[in-house]
Amino acid sequence: MAYVVLGCLLLWLAPEPLLNNWLPGSTVEERGRLLGTAAQVILLGLGGLIAIVGVALSLSRHRQELEAAERDRQRLVDDRHKEATRRDESEEQRLLNIERELRARFVTAVDLIGSDLAIRRTAAIYALGALADDWDDHGRRDEVQVCVDVICAYLRAPSPGPESSTPRDEVEIKTTAYRLIRAHMQPGANRSWSTLKLDLNRARIDFGVDLDSIVITGSGQLSFANATIRNNIWMNWATISDGGRLSLRGASIRSGAIWLGSATITRAYQISFDHTDFKDQGRLHLHGATISDGEELDMRTTFFDDESNLQMDEPLVALDHVGTDRDRPG
User: Fold this and answer.
1) Model pTM?
2) pLDDT, tens digit, for every residue of 190-223?
3) Which CA distances in Å does 29 have to 11, 15, 24, 32, 242?
4) Which of 28, 143, 152, 173 is disulfide-compatible with 135, CB 3.0–4.6 A?
5) What are the beta bridge partners of residue 210?
6) Quick one: DSSP state of residue 296?
7) Which of 64, 91, 113 lies at the terminal end of a domain, its last residue?
């Protein structure tokens, strides 16, 4: 509105002074003829001025719009960053809550495994297996190893009570634990223990242990070193490969047998029967076993008494590497 009023005033007042300035000696008639021309000049000037002002205003509005858009964009970026931070914090808290829950379950399982009641100890074995699976899903293989260590520690522990042989209820509990181990070491197991260390050193085994078809590979170790074995350990169709270890070093096998029938041994780090002692019809079965990639079972310090024997279909082991009682030192 102000531009319109200003324009009207200029059209009314400006032509006459302009003509007096441009044509100082002109007559009234000459100025009258040029009055329209002067008005047109003023109109053109006003139009140009208005155009310039309009462009300036348009540029100003455009700059303001750009600044507003930039503020909105930055606000959106900030909101997204805050949301991502909240999500990260929420996820971190969720993981902490999961770990807190898993550790609480571990404490409960350890308490149960020390119970005097067989049913509670059995529940503890199952609880540790489930806990190991949940730690595996959580990406914590180190905690899986801890759960396996506790299970193995229970299997190594002497049986409660004065009996010279393992009580029946304890056999059932330990058989459950071995079944759990076997299930997690099968080919294609979803939550495999095949690359973990299973320490069964000095375990007393006077009941059958079924570990058929297990896989030991990579950094995996299964050790019965210095164990006392009075029954069968079945590891038929086992696969020991790519750095896996199986040890019966110093074990005593009496009236029992180690079954490795149809086992496959390929690029294993170690298969040890060092100072393993077979007595009283103790047996080592290697029927159908295959050893490849230059592997060798060196059993020169493995001893068999007259009632014990090594059974195999073909010479997987050089017989001059197998000791007898006559070769035993002392």
Assistant:
1) 0.73
2) 999 999 999 999 999 999 999 999 999 999 999 9
3) 19, 14, 13, 5, 117
4) 143
5) 234
6) -
7) 113
